[in-house]
Amino acid sequence: MTIIGARPQFIKSAPVSKQLKKHFEEILVHTGQHYDKNMSKFFFDELQLKKPDYNLNVGSGSHAEQTANIMIKLEKVIKKNFPDLIIVYGDTNSTLAGSLVGAKLNIPIAHIEAGLRSYNKCMPEELNRICTDHYSKILFCPGKVAVNNLKKEGITKNVFLVGDVMKDAVLQNMERINSKTIRKRCNLKTDEEYYFFTLHRQENTDNLERLSKIFNMLRLAKLKIIFPIHPRTRKIITNSSIKVPENIFITEPVSYIESLSLQKNARIVITDSGGIQKEACFLGVPCITLRDETEWIETIKRGYNTIVGTDFKKFKKALEKYSEKDKYFNSNKLYGNGKAAEKIVRILRKKIL
């Protein structure tokens, strides 16, 4: 049984589900954590994911409400099917709920993207991933840093370094990238350079002082900024007195392929997303991260990514650094070779069959 509920999980599960169906019967459960059509259905269609066997339709709510609602509905589904294994991805409320319910029912949990740590326990995602790792029986890590993080916490059994399934997804969809349509939608000329920008994390959007600082920093940008806005972020901006700079072009949420297209052709990617930090690097585009820390340490060490938080001077310096350098990086060896899903399923076959 695979449990997903948010945009990044749809992307991560696509290459794994493709491999799973060769050897297993997969029951796909969509919690409904992301329920907006642009954030959910379009991704299923575009990634050619099968229709979920169950949709829990939990919708929005506080962290406690959302996690509790998923657990209540999910328990019934799990009891009805009693799968041999439950697969969870990443660090969302769907991840935590799935691992907790499964563990209490004594069903083994496999955590894909295990071992990540930002060491900031004010982040809901950090709490989710720590708990999930400690409930899991099989842990699939994207990099060596993640393996070492688990080792520090005493988790060494059934820990596997497999690479990143998001790299699988990027490489598998490279030929589908076509910038013409999305450029037209974003009012971009054929050869016009731009920055690609996303913002959705609670630490940035719920703190209006921090949100205001971010938009003030973005006024430094000399190029147009393309901003596919998250529904929740739009609501917060609309209900506040914050003014969006004129150099920012706001568009509705984009599909996965459209997002890759915009990233691949951007001068710089500016984001607070964990997944987009990696996607930018896989596509060879420098990234500026609007957080005070990141769990994707390797991207920092290799110079592909710079953490600036809301520090005006750091942001300015990063803009200058990446504008002067050659645009593209060679990220061939970052987080594996794009065969993570194959490795995962090969290991699961040995563990289960």
* Radius of gyration using CA atoms only: 20 Å
User: How many beta-strand runs?
Assistant: 13
Low-confidence stretches: none
Structural class from helices and strands?
Answer: alpha/beta
Q: Give the neighbour order of strands across the main sheet.
A: 3-2-1-4-5-6-7
Q: At the third CATH level, what is the topology name of the largest domain?
A: Rossmann fold
Could you explain the architecture of this structure?
The model has no long low-confidence stretch (mean pLDDT 93). This protein has helices at 7-20, 41-46, 63-81, 93-104, 124-135, 144-152, 165-172, 179-185, 202-205, 208-218, 231-238, 256-264, 274-282, 297-301, 312-324, 340-352; strands at residues 2-4, 28-30, 54-55, 86-89, 109-112, 138-141, 159-161, 194-197, 224-228, 248-251, 268-271, 287-289, 305-307. It contains 16 helices and 13 strands. It is globular and about 55 Å long. The protein is of the alpha/beta class. The longest helix has 19 residues, at 63-81. It is 45% helix and 13% strand. The chain folds into two domains: 2-164 and 336-352, Glycogen Phosphorylase B (Rossmann fold), CATH 3.40.50.2000; 174-324, Rossmann fold.
